[in-house]
């Protein structure tokens, strides 16, 4: 697998006097993040989730690191494994690290309560699909202070230049949120949001489950069950996740199964009312 394009891109950006940065998905790259935090000055990195509504997830959220040494062996390690989808590179004007973090913090939350979700800007697959979909004139609103970006798009390395880097307000109707979402990406996003919800609201019970079984497999099976039942509303998914955590041996009661000729709304109302009654929260 050739690393020539990102190497050439780094050299060209440095020649132009730009600063290089790494946008790292630290959820799956703990060792790389730890190594970078040990050696970089505090003003050369930022946790994007800090000072946001999801600050409690900062430890598993994206970090941005200024890495002005293209010969850093840690960069070489990342370039060897682009299929791990660890993030992407950007070039900035010197001193624009905080501006880039502010840019993505403003675009972090998608939708309105109670249907908010996190936009996974740090995922190179998300970035690649966005820049492929967007017209060039929409790049500044999407890329903000980034002068140029370099990323693995699933099959090869690619780079995209921003025609007007700088601070941009968030559009009323961002084009990047209107693009069709591939089924795999939608599934991954739902899984990530379910994981985030349980970490934020039920961390102790979730940790106990993770000690006994594969939490991702458990989450995936529940989301598949929600699809089969037609439970797509956030309150329905939250109810299913929460009650499954409380269930003995994490197995839902038999009466939760859908009845013949019962639509998803009737099914959810019956199960939620019965659950409230047995838990002493409401009359049957």
Can you describe what's shown?
This is DUF4123 domain-containing protein. It holds the Pfam family DUF4123. With 284 residues, the protein is of the alpha+beta class. The protein folds into 2 domains: 4-178, no CATH class; 184-278, no CATH class. The chain has 11 helices and 8 strands. The chain has a 6-stranded antiparallel β-sheet, with helices on both faces. Strands 5-6 form a two-stranded antiparallel ribbon. α7 (183-201) crosses α9 and α9 crosses α10. The longest helix has 19 residues, at 183-201. The chain is elongated.
What key phrases describe this protein's structure?
DUF4123, 284 residues, DUF4123 domain-containing protein, 6-stranded antiparallel beta sheet, single chain, two-stranded antiparallel ribbon, alpha+beta, 12% strand
Q: What is shown here, in short?
A:
This protein is α+β, with helices and mostly antiparallel strands and 284 residues long. The protein has 11 helices and 8 strands.
Describe how the helices and strands are arranged:
Layout (H helix, E strand, L loop, with lengths): L3 H12 L3 E7 L4 H10 L5 E3 L14 E5 L6 H8 L6 E6 L4 H9 L3 E2 L6 E2 L5 H10 L5 H5 L4 E5 L4 E5 L21 H19 L1 H10 L2 H15 L4 H13 L17 H15 L6
Antiparallel strand pairs: 1-3, 1-4, 2-3, 4-7, 5-6, 7-8
Helix pairs in contact: 7-9, 9-10
